Amino acid sequence: MNQLSEEDVAAALSGGRPDALALVYERFGPLVYSIALRSLGVRPDAEDVTQQVFVSAWRSRDRFDRSRGTLGGWLVTITRNKVADALRERQRHGRVLLQVTGGASVAAPEAPADRVVDRIVLADELAQLPEAQRLVMVLAFYSDLTHEQIARVLGLPLGTVKSHIRRGLLRLRSRLEADGVAY
Amino acid sequence: MSHTDPVILALLALGETAGTAHDAEHAESCAHCRAELARLTEVVRLARDAEPGETLEAPPPLVWDRIAAAVGTTQSLNGKAPPVPTPVTPEGRRESRSRRRPLPAWPRRRLASGLAGLAAGLIIGIGGAIGVAQLDQAPPARVVAQIELSPLPQFPQWQGTSGTAVMRATASQQQIAVTLRAPARPGFYEVWLLATNGVSMISLGDLSAGHTGTFTVPPDVDLRDYSRIDISLQPFDGSTLHSKTSVVRGSLPAAALG
Predict the structure, then answer these.
(1) Cβ pair B63:A51 closer than 8 A
(2) Which CATH architecture has domain B142-257?
């Protein structure tokens, strides 16, 4: 897989390259859409928010400062704002409906839970790992195999598996520190 | 005094028994190692806390079409869908949740379930690699038609569902990207081309769990003869025939078919 690095994509956006938005979307579309879907629960709303995030990112691309943060972190911030807008809009509709129907209360809108955002950021970084390392990390997280068992089933040297685990965890941690919310 | 080996800290964060008693003791008493272990453990906890269904999911193709329209670009996605990531929740995790204990005493399930997860991972990996290799070679495609798919009057249970089909064409092939907005039901959704003679039909393939899919029209099929797109709900009964339960349907405009 020849995926572009975040730096390449960010450089394309800052440089105003005409294909930059498509590159940004290809790299971060699943991250933005998944946060929106998980926060809003329904696909049409998540599709609307995803559209708003990338249109807004394109129009305000001059405001993205690579020296102050990552492109992923910037997009996560925009996504959280758009999700909060969508929830407010939903509540406004709910109020109007309740006035019409004489209902009592409306639950306050909530921004997407920070841990939800962090978990999706983590899933996004996991998906960026090289194939062999991703497989090791997925098995280490979810299969309940020990690192010795992982080495055996994958036919990899024990040292390779240990190093994949150590560096994989560090990479996931760095991404959470850069783009996460609560971590 | 030397700090705990970073590899041992990583394994401890995963809940494994690693290192010596001295390592464990040091990781407890040394502020640096304790903080390091806590950060790594939090990464592991976040990964394992993913709710069922909380996987990374690519937006349906129509979202990019709408963004491109809004910013006035004609840029296509290189004929390439956003990378489809590995699900973070392999088969079998949901059942195991109730048996979970707090970290770091992460329970070890049987080797068999690990192997099943591994097999799934390998299949996804291979499928992904082939998919990307094929798509990378595809020339840029242009959108020639976008139609809405609607439920049929004879199936009142599907009122309220809807779908979209975007047809793209290159010099050598035609692709149809389908998005369905329908509830999850037992079985799976399958996409068909229906002949204008009302008799023949061709299966294009199944929709993903996200109810989206992009299909290449078989090269020997003339869409002027198969201009209607139909999505059926298919039971898991092993039959390859249309279930006769049509969810939504729509017709490609003759103008787009040349």
Answers:
(1) yes
(2) Sandwich (2.60)
